[in-house]
């Protein structure tokens, strides 16, 4: 049964230490198998008792019923690392652009700047197109993880491979946006490209890079890159659209799926005996990003959001977990909660939560 991890989805503090998601280890089968009957899956729909089930986020393999969606999403996810590497190495054409602007009569410098910008815009187009593919993948996953007749808890238990992919999409999204936020060259390059292109059109100069990005695509890319966190905006719009398009599906099916995942990540991070099992420091940042990602999605999709008293996410607990990390490692995630959530500044948000995020 591989690494089966017991998850109590009910957010009850005295029970909180009962769940652990193994994002890493692949070699501890014997340890779990010795537990014999403890591995029996217990599901009870009575939430008050707290359903117990096991989630294997590390080695979850798709079951027959998951395969179709899993394979579609996998095709997208396998390109994610390459997109991040391209974005990380994106240096921009700031120097060439400055030179060209300072010496407008120097044709050589104009050509040099244009030559530097065109391939970069090709990259920006690739990133944008990937966001569209990711959006389609997310909608496929949401459809699978929220469909009737199963509860969100049962879905996460039955479709562990899809839950893992959902976590990977969120992890990618927050990493992409962290890199984009700290790279002002992206918007500078793109606006220079658009200005130069419109000048060329006015002067009837044929531009080889023009067929790369037509006007309509350029407008959509401009809106995308104008966002502080463009990938997160894409996902939250897609989730909101998914809910509004599926009128027959209770919105709780979607939001409970998100709040359950937030609880799982929080408890893993705040429980020392689980934390000490992580062999890879990367797993901590994976959990932190997934937790923040589902909180932000929940806040955009749920009518009253993640910060209200009625929210199913323990926001104080989640913020405390973030604050307990080394400060420089989580500033980006705290900023994501400060600036990309929807309801933080509502009157219904407690002063305590607001001051924790000051």
From TrEMBL:
Molecular function in Gene Ontology: small GTPase binding
Residue ranges of every copy of the CYRIA/CYRIB Rac1 binding domain listed in the record: 52-354
Keyword annotations of the record: Lipoprotein, Membrane
GO BP: regulation of actin filament polymerization
Coiled coil: none
Pfam families: CYRIA-B_Rac1-bd (PF07159)
Family classification: Belongs to the CYRI family.
Subunit structure, interactors included: Interacts with RAC1 (GTP-bound form preferentially).
Listed name of the protein: Protein FAM49B
Organism field: Camelus dromedarius
Lineage: Eukaryota, Metazoa, Chordata, Craniata, Vertebrata
């Amino acid at each position: 049964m591989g690494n089966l991890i017991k998850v109590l989805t009910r957010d009850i503090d005295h029970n909180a230490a009962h769940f652990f998601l193994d994002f890493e280890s692949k070699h501890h089968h014997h340890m779990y198998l010795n537990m014999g009957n403890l591995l029996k899956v217990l599901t009870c729909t009575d939430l008050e008792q707290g359903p117990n089930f096991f989630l294997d986020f590390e080695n979850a393999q798709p079951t027959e019923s998951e395969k179709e969606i899993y394979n579609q999403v996998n095709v997208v996810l396998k390109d994610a690392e390459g997109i991040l590497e391209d974005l990380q190495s994106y240096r921009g054409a700031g120097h060439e652009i400055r030179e060209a602007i300072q010496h407008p009569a120097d044709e050589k410098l104009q050509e040099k700047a244009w030559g530097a910008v065109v391939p970069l815009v090709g990259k920006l187009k690739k990133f944008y197109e990937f966001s569209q593919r990711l959006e389609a993948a997310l909608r496929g996953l949401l459809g699978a993880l929220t469909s009737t007749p199963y509860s969100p808890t049962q879905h996460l238990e039955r479709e562990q491979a899809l839950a893992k992919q959902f976590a990977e999409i969120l992890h990618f999204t927050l990493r992409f946006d962290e890199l984009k936020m700290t790279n002002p060259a992206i918007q500078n390059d793109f606006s220079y490209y658009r200005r130069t292109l419109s000048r060329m059109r006015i002067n009837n100069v044929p531009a080889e890079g023009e067929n790369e990005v037509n006007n309509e695509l350029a407008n959509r890319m401009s809106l995308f890159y104008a966002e502080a966190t463009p990938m997160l905006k894409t996902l939250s719009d897609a989730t909101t659209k998914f809910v509004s398009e599926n009128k027959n599906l209770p919105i709780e099916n979607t939001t409970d799926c998100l709040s359950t995942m937030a609880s799982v990540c929080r408890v893993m991070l705040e429980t020392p005996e689980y934390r000490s099992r992580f062999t890879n420091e990367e797993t901590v940042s994976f959990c932190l990003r997934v937790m923040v990602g589902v909180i932000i999605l929940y806040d955009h999709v749920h009518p009253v959001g993640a910060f209200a008293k009625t929210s199913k996410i323990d926001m104080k607990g989640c913020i405390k977990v973030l604050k307990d990390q080394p400060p420089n490692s989580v500033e980006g995630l705290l900023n994501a909660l400060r600036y990309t959530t929807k309801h933080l500044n509502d009157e219904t948000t407690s002063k305590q939560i607001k001051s924790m995020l000051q």
